[in-house]
């Protein structure tokens, strides 16, 4: 029997007024919230009315955290703290919340004395118990004297009061690389609360890291699955609650952020075997990529090999690369991706459980039923079985000789500023793709953050690090499809002959390439002559070139991977971006 | 005789393509640039053409930095490095740049051997000298073995080559709190280059701090004046060159950023006594604040005491508070501030030298000539002598009893996302106001960063930490005028009686105030009854209340300062913001 854990989210994760936050949490399917003090203080409703509002939305209030710097203080400070606590207990009674969080002290008043801390927490717990409340004590990673969970637990154990337990927060534990296995030694009933947050590993002050850069589970670098398994193995059965301080989420649409948050917990439950859902699909490749509008695929050596039976869609192919061109919709962008999976129905079921927005599709008589979902950036993602869908296209019999393109290497999707982390989690959880390392680079109009996600298919996601302002060009975020070939230099030559509009790379780039590598002069000359870019890693090489923009925001790349090169030539992206910008400006 | 120092800016400071950057630097009046390798590589023009373009714009290329991890390496790496250097020397000859920067190595190949470093730098300098070039060696704060400027200088001295000197970068020195006084021991002719950057003091990894958070001099926490004085005392007479890596500047309009940058160097030169410009004005107070459109000042106890002789402007007064209401322009915002200064002509001359955009004004016959400049957020700033300008208003004879307002305490101007640091520097350099500490707080729609600037008058500047997206409310950035009073509770009572629309503060706020302070219950009750907010610091107390929005983006605050309280009640800003938002939504 799988434990059916409740889910909660701290109001501090979301943007807006308290009512915006509560409505968003409820709409996303959370069972409860952690109420942040500032959200309460700024609300016109009294605590009892807030309790009613939550109940009306189907939400419980699972935690409240109005107390700071409580324990191990001199008697006069203790008296003040107790007085404040009693005030807050009054509020808790009205709110109907049972558990109050007490974080380890960061105060200059604090004394390094575990016995004193235990004694004062015991006193607080006694007062709480009189009102049917309980105290969850948590070690902040930057606590003055108590900054590890095992230390907090020692103090709780020493205090020995039934209304006193610990709160475990994954950020405070994993940011310090504390071993979560010792959690199993804590009796489950003494773990009063569990706060979950992921984060990228960043070389910075832990307090700033915590306050600005937390992420929902699955979006960062922490192993939340192992962490949470330890907590469940200890016997904890309380809510899985998100406490994520993030500068971007804090100003994003709370309804959208709440769905992203809930998906993170569903994916975590799945990784723990607690969710009744089909396993992540194992993609076998791109069935197709679909373009809206009509870029010139003929000049890239593609043949128009099929026409859809009922829709204004053409099929263009070359080698194993298949591109659909849809005459309907906003022209000049990538409208859809077809991902080949062994069991589309199971993949669709998984997508539904993980809150991927379904797209309704109409299939004509005899046409393959296709399941489609919307990715965070609006791209339609089709889950296809093998090549069934090809039957929907009437063959034209057309067949051009081709230019050496053999398939689709990856698709590059530029993400809206707010959705970078959401997109990572979407592809990871819904489609089972694994994110690579995040890289940042300086593009002509500001910093860009990017990462690949892969597993059967490769995607790259990137976003401006700072939301674009008025100065940025009107087309800040082109998308592209990267095709594979076996010889980039000859493919570029063939495409140039057939009239493809390829991006010209400055001579300065090749002068530098000659200076910084040991490539033979004739190799550099061949790359220079065809504007082919070059990268290498410890496993191999990457040769690639680009077309000019072929629509409102689409272009193409052709890549040749040599050896085990696993990247995407990101080092060359600024040169490509500048070239695209110059070409646009020149037109 | 003041040394006439040239000014330069690194292309990496600015957004856009190389040509955007060069044009912006030239337009702002810089004499030269540091050319960044990536800007060169991405440009279609060869080095000789770039040299011509710079010459055409009146710019020299003062520094080029294509070499990394050069020194103290094994022989095979040295051979590769020298080969690369020779390639780059070819480029330098075409660019017409004489000085190349070599930063201390961060490579795992590097060896901790100063003799070897000196020997290899000597070899590089010999090669450079053969071409009439020279090497500036700089200690990166995160250099593997060489990370202090005195260490770099020891190696340069040991190498003993005339074409080898040091480059000093204020960030690398001041970020580590290295004492800049030892710079005076370096012979001026061995300081080949000076790079200037300010920064806020941030508790983070120095490399990330350097790459993302540098600021132009005068915008951060470093003492660039003392630093630069040491360099000049050593005898350096080369350019003052800005090398500022900043995520926001990198995506901002480069023309505007370049002016901000140039202003920072002019202000630095002024602080060193190197600029022939009148001293910063010593403001004596607000002459007036001007509103566009007509909020209801009568309900705040103001009297319409004058009408302008030639313009559709009314003068409203109460105590020493004077507010102009201008019927022309975009209604509902603060259009102008009148700052009283002893010598407006001198202040105007200073503003001009410091590149403050002048505003043309027409004065009717017999009217006081008023000098006005545009602040970064577009607010007009008038520089007024005493009360001369009052003569432009025909007295009405009207006089209401008033509600206890006695003057203007401060004006709060919300800054556009990109202009927060520019605004700080503008008010600091042009008007001589001193910035206070920067504070960040969580507002309902995202984090806000704010700081006060003061000196005779007080201003607060704040900006969203992340540029606002679609979710943020349509009026995200109201401005306000804060009036002084001597008794906030009775003033609030009087204004409520006279029909002023004051913001209602939630009862939860007062429950918390009672819990966390020792204020007498009757005091809390009095504040609660009038929706007066409360703050205290170690010097005194602050009582304040707000009106609802009185125009498109304007409201008013009334404050009572008790004792030496020096803040602005920032702790209460989120409650105020939520209340304003609820009131707007409710209407």
From TrEMBL, chains A, B:
Broad EC category: lyase
One GO MF term attached to the UniProt entry: 3-dehydroshikimate dehydratase activity
Binding site for Mg(2+): 410, 480, 557
Pfam families, sorted: AP_endonuc_2, Glyoxalase
Cofactor section: a divalent metal cation
Reactions it catalyzes: 3-dehydroshikimate = 3,4-dihydroxybenzoate + H2O
Domain VOC: 407-548
PANTHER family documented for this protein: HYDROXYPYRUVATE ISOMERASE, XYLOSE ISOMERASE-LIKE TIM BARREL DOMAIN-CONTAINING PROTEIN
Protein name according to UniProt: 3-dehydroshikimate dehydratase
């Amino acid at each position: 029997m799988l434990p059916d854990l409740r889910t909660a989210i701290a109001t501090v994760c979301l943007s807006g007024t308290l009512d915006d936050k509560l409505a968003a949490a409820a709409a996303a399917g959370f069972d409860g919230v952690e109420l942040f003090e500032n959200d309460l203080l700024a609300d016109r409703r009294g605590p009892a009315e807030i309790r009613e509002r939550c109940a009306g939305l189907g939400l419980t209030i699972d935690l409240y955290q109005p107390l700071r710097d409580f324990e191990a203080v001199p008697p006069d400070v203790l008296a003040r703290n107790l007085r404040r606590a009693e005030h807050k207990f009054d509020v808790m009674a009205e709110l109907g919340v049972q558990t109050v969080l007490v974080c380890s002290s960061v105060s200059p008043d604090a004394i390094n004395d575990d016995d004193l801390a235990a004694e004062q927490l015991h006193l607080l717990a006694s007062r709480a118990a009189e009102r049917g409340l309980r105290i969850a004590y948590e070690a902040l990673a930057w606590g003055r004297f108590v900054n590890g969970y095992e230390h907090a637990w020692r103090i709780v154990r020493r205090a020995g009061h039934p209304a006193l337990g610990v709160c475990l927060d994954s950020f405070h534990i994993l940011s310090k690389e504390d071993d979560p296995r010792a959690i199993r030694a804590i009796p489950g009933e003494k773990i009063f609360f569990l706060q979950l947050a992921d984060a990228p590993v960043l070389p910075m002050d832990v307090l700033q890291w915590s306050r600005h850069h937390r992420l929902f589970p699955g979006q960062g670098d922490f192993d939340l699955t192992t962490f949470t398994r330890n907590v469940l193995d200890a016997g904890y059965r309380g809510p899985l609650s998100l406490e994520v301080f993030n500068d971007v989420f804090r100003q994003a649409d709370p309804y959208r952020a709440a769905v992203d948050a809930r998906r993170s917990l569903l994916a975590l439950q799945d990784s723990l075997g607690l969710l009744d859902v089909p396993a992540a699909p194992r993609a076998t490749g791109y069935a197709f990529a679909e373009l809206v509008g009509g870029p010139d695929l003929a000049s890239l050596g593609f043949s128009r090999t099929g026409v859809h039976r009922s829709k204004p869609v053409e099929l263009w192919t070359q080698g194993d690369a298949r591109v659909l061109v849809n005459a309907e919709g906003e022209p000049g962008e990538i409208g859809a991706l077809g991902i080949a999976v062994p069991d589309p129905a199971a993949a669709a079921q998984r997508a539904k459980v993980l809150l991927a927005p379904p797209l309704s599709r109409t299939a004509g008589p005899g046409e393959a039923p296709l399941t489609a979902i919307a990715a965070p950036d609006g791209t339609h993602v089709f889950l296809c079985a093998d090549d069934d869908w090809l039957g929907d296209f009437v063959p034209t019999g057309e067949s051009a000789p081709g230019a050496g393109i053999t398939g689709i290497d990856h698709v590059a999707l530029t993400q809206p500023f707010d959705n970078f982390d959401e997109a990572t989690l979407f592809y990871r959880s819904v489609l089972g793709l694994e994110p690579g390392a995040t890289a940042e680079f300086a593009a002509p109009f500001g910093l860009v953050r990017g990462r690949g996600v892969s597993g059967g298919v490769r995607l790259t996601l990137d976003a401006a690090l700072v939301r674009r302002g008025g100065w940025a060009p009107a087309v800040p975020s082109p998308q592209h499809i990267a095709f594979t070939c076996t010889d980039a230099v000859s493919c570029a030559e063939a495409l140039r002959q057939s009239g493809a509009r390829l991006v010209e790379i400055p001579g300065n780039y090749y002068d530098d390439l000659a200076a910084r590598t040991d490539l033979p002069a004739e190799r550099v000359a061949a790359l220079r002559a065809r504007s082919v870019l070059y990268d290498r890693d410890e496993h191999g090489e990457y040769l690639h070139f680009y077309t000019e923009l072929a629509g409102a925001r689409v272009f193409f790349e052709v890549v040749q991977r040599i050896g085990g090169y696993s990247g995407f030539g990101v080092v060359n992206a600024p040169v490509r971006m500048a070239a695209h910008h110059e070409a646009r400006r020149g037109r």
